[in-house]
Amino acid sequence: MTVTWDRKLWAPVIQGLSEYKTHCDLYFREPTFSDFLIACNDDKNAAECFLENASLLPEESAYDETTDNNLRYIGANPNNYVSFNGELWRIIGIMNNIDDGTGTKETRLKIIRDESIGKYSFDNTGEYGNNDWSSGALQKVLNEGAYWNRGSGECPYGNNGAVTSCDFSAIGLTAEAKALFSPVLWNLGRSSTYEDVLASMFYERERGTDVYEGHSTEWIGNVGFMYPSDYGYATSGGSTTNRETCLQTSLYNWKNFEDCYSNDWLNRKISTWTLTPLNSTIVFHANVNFVNGSHAYSTYVDILPVVYLKTNIRIVAGEGKKENPYILSLP
Amino acid sequence: MLVNDTPQEQMKINENVELSIYLNDEEINFFPEKNNQEGYVFDKAVCYINGQESD
Predict the structure, then answer these.
(1) Along the 55 residues of chain B, how does pLDDT read in single tens digits?
(2) Is A104 helix (H, G, I), strand (E, B) or coil?
(3) Can you give the residue ranges of every domain in chain A?
(4) Hey, which bits of chain B come out as E strands?
(5) Is A30's Cβ below 8 Å from some Cβ in B?
(6) If you measure CA to CA, which chain A residue comes closest to B32?
(7) What is the pTM of this model?
């Protein structure tokens, strides 16, 4: 016998009833954010539902107060897990004014893989590597190579064209996952300084046109990395150093402010590539407690793929918890 | 599928079935308000057939 609750009829649905005397205790409780999120998805998309109910997540989300005023998950461990590609990913935020590559601006959920897919060079060209994502070797692995095709092959690993074998046959993108996201325009502006850069400065520079001579200012594609500003805006701060102070502190100097980096879920306690270059060869990466950079050929930096979900995605189940992640669906 | 949608009938599906309603673990004698910002949501059901807990 099964008992479910029909939300539209607002009545129990009992199936498999026997002829014996039956007593059922039905338990109700106060609704949570995920209850509203799922109920809302009956007639709105996931991004609209997040924005509509954001006030119910005061400790786990914050608007970044940039020109796009994105809504972001913040804190040490927010409930932002989502089941995607048969594995756990996490929602960075609900990002506004995302160009779909044709000039149309959309509001999209931006998600990042929870675990690294390995350590590889951003690029392996020449002595230091090419730090232009649009033509980088790792970009090709993620968007047209072994990871994209859920297969195996060679990945950039070192300088002067060095590679290593890489096998994504169990963790590469599935056809089902690819149906849930689509290309966007990724901004590739650089930050020409590193010690003094606040999250807000990174945000502006990432979207700027200052690049190394001949490099691209933007790239249209599917799979990228987070930006340094994503890392910065994910902090909730703490009791000694609050979020406002963290956001007024350069991401390079966060290493001196434990409240900033330890209350930041995008601090994965590893080094992870971002998309953003510094000069002609260095790429910024997020570390255990701050943001700095390394030459693009470096082999000790982990890979956390990032995609933007399609606008019509619905969240149909789950609580955003690691053990009960949100479940995505197309309408 | 059995659905009774008048308040008087909600608590008794048929002569063999009885329902008890709990709100935040406290027993009440009506279905709580439909899901909205001031309302409540269904959490779970535990059923007993002839006094034995059902799977």
Answers:
(1) 334 444 434 445 567 788 888 988 888 877 776 655 456 788 889 999 888 888 7
(2) coil
(3) 2-329
(4) 17-23, 26-28, 41-49, 52-53
(5) yes
(6) A28
(7) 0.88
> A222 vs chain B: nearest CA distance in angstroms?
37
Chain A partners within 8 Å of B11 (Cβ)? none
- Convert the pLDDT of each residue in A68-104 to its tens digit: 999 999 999 999 999 999 999 999 999 999 999 999 9
Say what the alpha-carbon torsion angle A81, A87, A89, A95 is, to the nearest 10 degrees: -100
Give the CA diameter of chain A: 80
Rounded to 5°, angle at Cα A312 from A310 and A317: 100
Q: Which residues pair with residue A308 across a beta bridge?
A: A110
Q: Which residue of B has its CA nearest to A16?
A: B1
Joined together, the tokens standing for residue A132 give 């232009």
User: What is the number of structural domains in chain B?
Assistant: 1
Residue type, A46: A
pLDDT at B29: 78
pLDDT at residue A17 tops 80: no
Q: Which residue of B has its CA nearest to A12?
A: B3
| Domain of B54, in residue numbers | 1-55
Closest CA to A24 of B16, B3, B23: B16
Please answer whether residues A288 and A296 qualify as being in contact, where contact means their C-beta atoms are separated by less than 8 angstroms.
Answer: no
In this predicted model, which residue has the larger pLDDT, B9 or A7?
Answer: A7
State which amino acid sits at residue A313.
Answer: I
